[in-house]
Structures are given as C-alpha cells and as structure tokens.
Amino acid sequence: MEQKSSVFSGLDAKKYFLKKNLKKDLPASIVVFLVALPLCLGIALASGAPLFAGLITGIVGGIVVATFSGSQLSVSGPAAGLTVIVLGTITKLGSYETYLLAVVLAGVMQIVLGLIKAGTIGNYFPSSVIEGMLAAIGLMLILKQLPHALGVDSDFLGDESFFQTDNQNTFSAINNALSKFSLGAIIISGLSIAVLIFWPKIKQVSSVPAPFIVVLIGVGLSAVFQNTGLALKPSQMVAIPIVTGVSDFFSLFRSPDFSAILNKDVWIAAGTIGVVASLETLLGIEAIDKIDPIKRVTPTNRELLAQGVGNMVSGMIGGLPMTSVIVRSSANVNSGARTKMSAIFHGTWLLISLLFIPGLINMMPYACLAAILLVTGYRLARIALFKHMYHKGWDQFIPFVITIVAVLLTDLLKGVAVGMLVSIFYLLRTNMRNPYFYKVTEEGNCKNIRIKLAEEVSFLNKAAIQVLLTQIPNETNVIIDGKNSRYIDPDVLETIFNYKHNAYTKGIIVTLDNIKSQYNVPKLNTKIQEINN
Q: What angle do CA 184, 367, 212 make, to 5 degrees?
C-alpha cells in the first residue's frame, strides 16, 4: 500500500502541480504574448532582418528554450541588446543565409559553455548591480513607452539604448512626442493604465486578466475612432506579416549557408553573438530569480545549454539570436506566472496568431501595449525599492544608483559593466578593512600588539596588512597570530616574513604564532564536509 502511494505521488505530483498553476500561467502567457509580439517585430526591423525572423525567434524562444530550460519564469526571445551586432553581422557577411550560419555556430558555442560549467559566472553578479539593472529597465520602459502611449511611433518598441536608431535619444523622443501627440492614443493608453491598476482590485471581475481587457478596449476604441478626429494612423497599429496558408508559412523559412563554414568572419561573428547572448542571459536569469515570489534558483549551466539549443534551431530556420529577455520575463512575473508553461504557451500564441489571426492582431494599437509596459516598468522601479537599497548602506546604494544611471545613458551590458566596477571598488574597500583583529596591551613601558588574522587572508588584504605593519611604533612586541587561518595568500606571507626580517632595525620583536610557510587553497567540498560534521 505504501509503495502504491509513493508511485501515485511520483506520477501525479507533476500533473497536479501543472494543473494547480494553470489558472495563473495561462492568463500570464497572454500578457507576455501581447508584450512580446511588437517587440519581436521591432527588433527584427532594427536588425535589418525580415519581420518573420523576429516572430519565429519568439516562437522558438517560447516553445523550445522554455522546454529545455530549468527556469520557471524566464521568457526568451530576440534581444534588443543584440540589434547592432546582428545588423553589423548581416552587412559584413553580405548575405542573410551566411549570417544564419553564425547564429547556429553561436548556439553550438553556448552549448559548449554550458558543458564546461561557464554558467557559474552568473553567481558573481553583485545583488546591488542586479537590483539597479532591474530598476533601470523599469525606468527605461517608462521613458521608452511614453512616446507610444502618446501616439508617436517613429522608433521601434524594442530600442533599449539611450541613442536610438532613428537618430534621436530617449529624452528627445519624449520631447518630440509631447509636440506631436495623438489624442486618440492618449485616451486609449490612459484608460488602459486605469484598467491595469484598478481592475484586479474588483473581486467580482478580477479572475479575467486586466491586460486582456486592455487589448479589448484598445481594439474597440481604435474601431470607434475611425472616421473621426481621433482616428489612429497605420503606424500606430501592430503590423504582423499576413500568412495566407500553411504553404505560404513554410515558404518564409530560410536556412543557413554551410558552404561558408570556413569563413573566419563567420566564426568571429558567432563568437561575438555567443558571448554577448550568454552574458545577457546570465544577467536576465539572475534578475528574474530575484523577483521570483517563490525564490527559486535557476541552474545557469542548464540555461546556457537551453539557449544554445534555441539559437541553433532559430538559425536553422531563419530566426535571430535570442537571450533570456528581462522585459518579457518581468511581465511574466508581474502577471502572476508560476511555471515555465506560461513561456511555452506564449510561444504557442505567437505561432497561432501568425497562422490564423494576423488580421485580428493587426487591429491592436501600440498605445494599449505601451500601457502594459508602463505599468510593468513602474513595478520594477517602485519607490519602495530605492528606500530598501538606501537603508542597506552606501556600499549597496551607490553601485545601485550608478548602475541605473549607466544603463539609462548607455545600454544594458555597458551599464552593468560600470555598476560592476563600482561594486568591485566597494568589495576591495571592504576586504582591505577586514583581514585581521587588532589588540594592544601594555606591560609597563613595553607595548604588546597581537594581530589575529582572519580565517582566509587573500591577496586583496595585502595592502591593508602592509599599512598596519608600517604604522606599528618602534620598541614594540608584535605577535602575528595565524591560529584561525585556513589560508593565507603567498603575497601576504611574503609581506609578513619580510616585515619580521627587517623589524629589528626599529627595535620591534616579531613573533609568528601558527603561521605556516605555505598554505594550500581550501577546496569547496572540504568546507561542506566540515559544515556537515
């Protein structure tokens, strides 16, 4: 009976888990679909690729990558951060088919990175930088979507750089929108934001997803405004390719040109795409894990493998390179998703919309989709987050703020790099202060100083120890105690031994207590065994 019960739990637990979360994953997938649709099109347009390539990348990212990924909330698709690289690659290689080969090879490289455990790099991104990146993306969404909410759609929805592809920057685009706004778009976006805020608070109707109502409002009002002074222009509406049948659908696929496999420029492009896509993915995964309400941890090496498979598939059928995309993933989390089924469903909706309802999709105004992203942006950059980081201290708050500013004024990777440098400065500063415990006792006219070293003394502590030793007054007895030290860096040992050798010239007597001449680097599994014991 007990065996039967365990078999039952093993077979049915996963089904029960999926069924239980379906009521949250399904509505969330619709929101992510609505957010992803214009982003896929815009990124493809900015990359100099066919619009179909953006959609097929979103479909592969949703269905293929989510299936292989260990992340429950990450949503993959074409990334705005790769647009400049993709555009340059297509131009340099001279043909779209040769570029597709570079995407396939980039996927192979990502699989290799996953196999050699390179995903652990993601564990070293500081928390303050990740929080700053999330807040910056929230502010970026607000700044970038304001023109679309006002009805000015000259640039594409996925442009995340401060300097845009239409020769404007973020602030000039907003200023331009304020002078060329569309009253019809403002009504749609304003009403949509109100629905997104207040609809979930009404218990009687809260089971119907607010973004779904927003889309209905957008489609309805855009139809009502036709032939009036509030009518929307074609540029203010979603536009996906019209597929007339299955044969027409398959005719849009393109395959890589494997005859260029020995072209060194293809390998250089593949390496660039593979490395940048992997870094963006690791940053995205780290960020999404932070806002996961259940606080699950994504296996980063498995994620690189999943992204590699996705990029190989995307390249084989004519798509763009993909990453884990924070905007889509954030919308997924904020819409209440619980499992990867939300991402898989979103990929399915993209496929269905392309095959069966392109006319209906093209009736959606950008204004209502911009409203969804505006609310998502506010939730990422909420005031409470700034207060929380401020109370954690300056060593957390300053890297947080600098990351935000750097991301807003450059782009995601450059901004995070700047934040990392500032965070490393504070890390070095902290390490320089904490390599020892310092105690002074006096016996008559003689001073005794005991310097008790920390459990692990690294190269980063060398400067602090040197400064301490040079400040010790003449005619002093010094005991350097390494009894608790499991590891002391060779450079620090050299500093200590040199000081002992030369200290007699100042009348300083140095005693080394439990200081070895050499230390082996402690292994992680040894530490784990000690903890377990």
A: 115
pTM of the full structure = 0.72
- From the number of C-beta atoms within 10 Å of its C-beta (0-12, 13-18, 19+), residue 474 rates as exposed
- For the CA atoms of 83, 84, 85, 90, the dihedral, rounded to the nearest 10 degrees, stands at 90
| Residue 532, number of CB atoms within 10 A of its CB | 6
Mean pLDDT value across residues 423-429: 83
pLDDT in tens, 168-218: 666 676 777 677 788 999 999 999 999 989 988 888 887 777 888 888 999
CB 101 within 8 A of CB 260: yes
Instruction: State the amino acid at position 98 in one-letter form.
Output: T
- Reduced to 3 states (helix: H, G, I; strand: E, B; else coil), residue 150 is coil
Count CB-CB contacts under 10 A for residue 313. 22
Using CA of residue 257, residue 260, residue 265, residue 267, what is the dihedral sign? positive
With the C-alpha atoms ordered 456, 462, 464, 467, is the resulting torsion angle positive or negative? positive
Q: Is 320 helix (H, G, I), strand (E, B) or coil?
A: coil
Cα–Cα dist 109/115, whole Å: 10
CA 181 to chain centre: 32
Structure tokens at 462: 């060398």
The C-alpha atoms of residue 370 and residue 363 are separated, in whole angstroms, by 15
Q: Which residues contact 449 (CB under 8 A, 6 or more apart)?
A: 438, 439, 440, 441, 472, 476, 477, 478, 479
Nearest Cα residue to 152 out of 132, 172, 126 = 172
**Cross-strand bridge partners of residue 324:** 76
- Could you say which DSSP state residue 73 is in? S
Task: Kindly tell me the burial class for residue 257, based on how many C-beta atoms sit within 10 Å of its own C-beta (0-12, 13-18, 19 or more).
Answer: middle
Phi, psi of 377 (to 5 degrees): -60, -40
- Its sign, for the CA torsion 126, 269, 83, 302, is negative
In this predicted model, what pLDDT tens digit does every residue of 492-513 receive, in sequence order? Answer: 899 899 999 888 888 899 999 9
Give me Rg for the CA atoms of the chain: 28
- Is residue 430 pLDDT above 80, yes or no? no
Which one-letter amino acid corresponds to residue 454? A
